[in-house]
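dude i think i finally got it to work??
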Amino acid sequence: MKKIIGILSLLLILVGCSKDKEKYTSTFYDTFDTKVLYVEYAESEDDFNKNAEFVKSEFERLHKLYDNYRTYDDVNNVKTINLNAGKEPVKVDEDLFKMIKFSMDNYDKVLGKTNIAMGKVLDIWHDIRENNKDKENSEIILPKNEDLIEANKYTNIKNVILDEENMTIYITDPEMSIDFGAVAKGYAVELVAKKLEEKGIENASINAGGNVRTIGNPGGGRKTWGVALQNPDMQSKDYLDVLYIEGSKSVVTSGDYQRYFIKDGKVYHHIIDPKTLWPSEQYAAVVVVTKDSGLADLLSTALYLSTKEEAEKIISNYDDEIGIIWADHNGNKTFTDNMKDLMQSQGATSR
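look at this
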């Protein structure tokens, strides 16, 4: 079994080659703090290179818009909005405005599990992870619960005011900040994929740090893409499973094996429960399959933080077909019925 490298939660297995098109790949690393792999079956290398450059430039543009840690010349981004909290509305690009609106429109649907207004709490955990890098166990410091509780006073999503006519965002609470870690990457993948589809691309895929979005079929007469799911047990040489995806779909995983540190044998990862303000311990990973990558990203976080009963209620709030795999810390998997025909472990094969 192929060894999985890095923090990718998914590895796209590309099979087949087209009689009329050749398979080309392009990889870059400087956006969304992750590796982005673009694959296309194209009629010529020149055609592919143009599309690959477009993909890279779009990811660079969206990375700047959705960045809540840095500012950039001539760009009003998430950091700009946070810096102006309690001061004045900020006029933003349409792609940033729509992502914020998307996140807010879905807040109640996901029972508040994914809250972009948790920036102040998430900043504490981000700083803790950064400060604990390469430290010995005895030197690792955990956040104080009283600090998390205090920060949580400034996480009311209703304090984010959208003015669609003027395309402005205003945070009324000067102590509040927004963070899009649970949705930005998937939303960006979907935006880029849709633009590729508008350009007439028929056989391609984007894998941004494990957020996979396929476009059409892989070519060579095959109907499915193989998407290998990384095992949350990083010591294992086996995949969690392999999914066989037909047509244009998204596969996104949230797991405890990505951004984390270990203290006294316990993993403290980056997916913070808005109720406890600490990393959730319910699952090792949750996989979501649906059409829209932005929705898949948002849902994978929300469902990772949900009980099975809460998950059922969340899914009932959507008309989209949504498939889910839950993986616990003992290597066991449960899944929705609509995943059976996609999973290799349930007998699905490449077609």
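The helical segments are 45-66, 78-83, 94-105, 119-131, 145-151, 184-198, 293-304, 308-316.
im so relieved honestly
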